[in-house]
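Blackboard transcription, Thursday session:
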Amino acid sequence: KDESMDELEEELRRVTAENKKLVEMLSVVCENYNTLRSHLV
Amino acid sequence: MDYSSSWINTSLNLNINPHMVHQQLPKNVVENNFFSLEMKKSSPKEESSGALVEELKRVSAENKKLTGMLTEMCENYNTLRNNLMDYMRKNPDKESSPSKKRKSDEISSSNNNLMGGEVGGVNGNNSESSSSDEDQSCKKSMELETCIKAKVSRVYYKQESSDSSLIVKDGYQWRKYGQKVTRDNPSPRAYFKCSFAPSCTVKKKVQRSVEDPSVVVATYEGEHNHPHPSQVDSTSSATNNRCRNPISSAVPSSAPSTVTIDWTKSKCSNESSSKKMMINHPKMEVPQILVEQMATSLTKDLNFRAALAAAISGKMLHQN
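(Written on the board underneath:)
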């Protein structure tokens, strides 16, 4: 049970980190998109 | 006086019998109570693992949603960027202002950061279904960039270290439209655009080399759609090019090559400098070519021929 708990915690940590990265990337993409759009408009 | 009939019942009907309470409560509440009691009875490890699983599910779902949003956003970005590139390609004259150049730099750099780096990495890990689409769009954008940056050549000019100006005399006429300092190099980078022909889109970046401050690096982008000014000048005026720098015509207009030219010597062609140029760059037979071209253009000029013939014949007559 301890092992499965550890695995779960590890997985949760990994997914959370990935999530954070995704949010950052999305923010960058949005920023770039808006910049590009403002240039066109 | 009988007050018994008008008395208010103040009893609260409180019942401390738990069995009775369960009977009065709705069935689902009772079940929940039993469930919660059972949960309390379970070990804290099980409880925490349940919470972990729940959290994991939530974060995974959020992750999936974010990936979808990112994919969509990237697609939109690529579409918009391609449209902008098409527009810029169709209207090259209108994008000559420094602000737009800066903007296009920003766009390309941000696109490089975004497409080349993180998005690909996460897609590889996370959403395999969307990765192929994004790869295709990324490939498209990369191909587009290579198409645009195909005609890039870099020329190294040797300059005196005391000379801090970023002016490189390569024979063409340039209009400076911007200057900025980059992180990797403390000396400023100057941007020039060819001003000889209005439709010429060739651009030039000039910056002092980090490794050797006496060397100035000029990066040319694009291909001149007009002849070299020296050729034009030679056809229009014969005497104009006497002190023109012969090296200027050696600068390649489109070929992606590297040329080293020593500018520390005098600009007018003398023996020592021409020798040095020959050593630095084997393709420096250009002065000869230039002379031949000038001769050809001069002989084609009927007025010049007549004037020359008159001058020679006059001199001969005068001697006689």
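Lecturer's comment: The first helix of chain B runs from residue 18 to 24.
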